[in-house]
Structure formats: structure tokens, C-alpha cells
Amino acid sequence: MAKVKIVLLPKTRRIIDEMGENIKLARLRRKLSSEQVAERANISRPTLVSIEKGKPSVSMGSYLSVLQVLGLEKDFLIVAKDDTLGRKLQDAGILVNERAAKRNDKNG
């Protein structure tokens, strides 16, 4: 099976790069080697390196495992917590079309 190339907009690319750098800095502040963190997170060292470089091809589960090892797993709950745009749309009363009722095919 061919590997799918993930394409990110430049702004999004910078965000994931920064997240990887923040994870690396958190590891270094705790004076943990990459081997220690990878082992504790049950991932390979190359996967940890990819996380620290902000590679989008790494699963969210792997990112979360590393955050858990670093004691930062609750930071994951902050993602999309304050959905300002969504709340504004909700408050504006934007209606979403509902599904049509099922047809009764017996009557043609």
C-alpha cells in the first residue's frame, strides 16, 4: 500500500513544528534521553525523533503517549476546548439542514 503524503498549509506546518519543539524542550528539561522517553512511551526512537521534528505522519496516539510520559497529557484536552467560532455560529442560530424523512417505496 502506498504511503499517503500529508500536505499542510504553511501556518499549520509551523504549528506542528512548534509543538514538536515544545515536546523536545519538555523532555530536555526533565533530563530524559530520547531512548528513555521512547521506551516508556512504547514507541521507537525514530518515531520520537519524528514527533520532536513535528512530522504530521506520526499518529496522535504516539504524540499522546509521549505527552503522558512527560506528564503533559492533560495539555491534549486543551485542543479545541474554547471553540469561539463554533459558539458564535451556534449563537447566531445558523440552521443545519435536517435529513429528509425516509421514503416509503411500497407506494411507488
Automatic annotation (TrEMBL):
Keyword check for DNA-binding, yes or no. Answer: yes
The cross-references to Gene3D superfamilies, in alphabetical order and at most eight, read:
lambda repressor-like DNA-binding domains
Q: Which InterPro entries match?
A: Cro/C1-type_HTH, Lambda_DNA-bd_dom_sf
Which GO molecular function, any one, fits this protein according to its record?
DNA binding
Give every HTH cro/C1-type domain span: 23-77
Phosphoprotein found in the keyword field:
no
Q: Origin, by domain of life?
A: Bacteria
Q: Which Pfam families match?
A: HTH_3 (PF01381)
**Record key words, sorted:** DNA-binding
Q: What is this protein called?
A: DNA-binding XRE family transcriptional regulator
Q: Which organism is it from?
A: Gelidibacter algens
